[in-house]
Amino acid sequence: MNVKVFRTKEVQDLLKAAVNIDDLSGNPRLKEILNRLLGDLFKAIDDLDITPDEVWVGVNYLNKLGQDGEAALLAAGLGLEKYLDIRMDAEDREIGIDGCTPRTIEGPLYVAGAPLRDGVSKIDINADTDAGPLVIHGTVTGPSGEPVAGAVVECWHANSKGFYSHFDPTGAQSEFNLRGAARTGADGKYEFRTLMPVGYGCPPHGATQQLLNELARHGNRPAHVHFFVTSAHHRKLTTQFNIEGDPLIWDDFAYATREELIPQVVEKTGGAALGLKAETYKDIEFNFVLTPLVQGKDNQLVHRLRASAAA
Ligand code: MBD
Ligand code: FE
Q: Residue 2 has what pLDDT?
């Protein structure tokens, strides 16, 4: 088949009818966006001669994606979440914001409500025989290097199997294991006492991995630790660092790696005195430089559906 019908009045009228374009009620922004996306899809079907069978494969894929609860995971894997970061970075450059800790994607595995402690937060609750102790610490500063008091650093990461609490298919972790928050004092310092994570892999039988297989892509991330940093007088920072030496560090299926987000891992002793499970532990210093509010507000705060639980 090599027919072209997209430009016909019948199809253009159909597109308008589908989003009820002539009716001023409803959600005008949604109408605008859906009209464009549906039109681009119709045009692609015409241009690439996408067959009915192929369309139904796609429709049924969306059903499986939803059943598996993986739409946000796929958004990360297809670079959509990274693309939003690229756009926000460009917006920042345009208004002269730079030199601060780079953002990188949030991902789909944050859970709100983790315990908040002053200064030091020990976040490993469950024993994990395959993971050694890890201390993550640093200072939160503003753009000119001044320590920020009262900043809240939230942290979440995987265990030695690459699984996150709340989403662990083995059910092995209690709520908020490897998740927590630390509030800075006048010196701007925070610290997490935890265990070394291992990289995440997509559920092997889920919709995301199914699509990645067709693309001959893997669905793995290097070992990493996520952070939100919030402070009343700065913009919220969403970032992560990677664990140096992980072989996937420049082959992340979610494209979150950045040069500035690979801190040194230093081996230290004195773990017992810190309440760690071994005398020898890994230490990572990671400092956060926050960006200023823009005209008194956070112009890039991202609202999205997030899991939450009670501490
Ligand atoms: C993760 O741990 C993650 O950080 C992202 C972005 C996607 C899937 C799992
Ligand atoms: Fe993650």
A: 80
pLDDT digits (tens, 9 = 90+) for 260-300: 999 999 999 999 999 999 999 999 999 999 999 999 999 99
- Tell me the C-alpha distance between 186 and 102, whole Å: 24
Q: Check pocket membership of 254 for ligand 1, CB cut-off 6 A.
A: yes
pTM over 0.90: yes
Query: For the chain, where are the E strands, in sequence order?
Result: 111-112, 116-118, 120-122, 133-141, 152-157, 179-183, 189-195, 224-230, 237-242, 266-269, 280-285, 288-289, 307-308
Supply φ then ψ for residue 81, to 5 degrees. -70, -40
Cα–Cα distance for residue pair 286/302, rounded to 1 Å: 23
Residues whose beta carbons lie less than 5 angstroms from ion ligand 2: 107
| Tens digit of each residue's pLDDT (9 = 90 or more) over 7-23 | 999 999 999 999 999 99
Reported as type and span, the H/E element at residue 133 is strand 133-141
One-letter amino acid at 295 equals Q
Atom number of ligand 1 nearest to Cα 106 = 6
